[in-house]
Write a structure and sequence with these properties.
single chain; alpha/beta; globular; 7 helices; ten-stranded mixed sheet
Length: about 220
């Protein structure tokens, strides 16, 4: 079993994919410990994204799965399709126009195993095309939450320690299966429908202060 399955939805992504791909295969945890699932969400670029994904798969056939959707389902639908193929101990999501620091999965997986965590949330920085990387001013402390009662869960939810974004987290796959949660499809704000229910299933949650994800801000989307 791979340690982490990473699901990457792709739509007209040839401009961004190389940087994202290199950051994933160069992870310090080792490509052999990762399952990278690239989902082509019916890109409309004359096959450029799909052709690039085929070349990517050839480079690491034992660690990469590529999926071609016949109809566009937006990011939520692409992630749902990727979830069907995920077999790793943990699951993560990376958007094709973003990239990650080399230590992301080694650090997050190590913390998950240390605490037997259901969810690990890490911090991130922003990237603007004409500026570069902008540090995220939202600093986070390293924290551990163990839910032993309904009051514990209520306190954790009220404190809003965990965001509803999907890409800054590592999820135990067995918990995701048990929760039977999924993303909203064909909509823009698709993530809370997947993330929020998991906050009612997770009993051990970790927050990491490390900024390990680079979130690209595009002017056109």
């Amino acid at each position: 079993m791979k340690k982490v399955s990473v699901i990457i939805p792709c739509f007209n992504a040839v401009k961004w994919l190389p940087k994202c791909f290199v950051s994933l295969v160069g992870q310090s945890i080792g490509i052999d410990n990762l399952e990278l699932i690239f989902v082509n969400d019916a890109s409309k670029d004359d096959g450029q994204t799909w052709n690039m994904l085929n070349e990517i798969e050839k480079a690491y056939p034992d660690s990469i799965i590529i999926i071609d959707l016949p109809h566009n389902r937006r990011q939520g639908g692409a992630r749902n399709e990727g979830l069907k193929y995920a077999s790793g101990e943990y699951i993560a999501f990376v958007d094709a126009d973003d990239w990650v620091e080399a230590e992301l999965f080694e650090k997050a997986y190590s913390k998950a195993k240390e605490k037997d965590a259901d969810i690990v949330q890490f911090n991130y920085n922003y990237y603007f095309e004409n500026v570069g990387i902008i540090p995220n001013k939202n600093e986070m402390d390293d924290e551990y939450f163990e839910i032993k009662s309904s009051d514990d869960r209520k306190k954790m939810l009220i404190m809003e320690k965990f965001t509803y974004g999907c890409w800054n987290k590592l999820y135990k796959r067995s918990m995701v299966i048990n929760a039977n949660t999924a993303f909203a499809e064909n909509v823009i704000y698709e993530e809370p429908l997947f993330v929020y229910p998991l906050l009612f299933y997770a009993n051990k949650l970790v927050k990491m202060s490390d900024k390990l994800y680079i979130y690209r801000q595009n002017n056109n989307g």
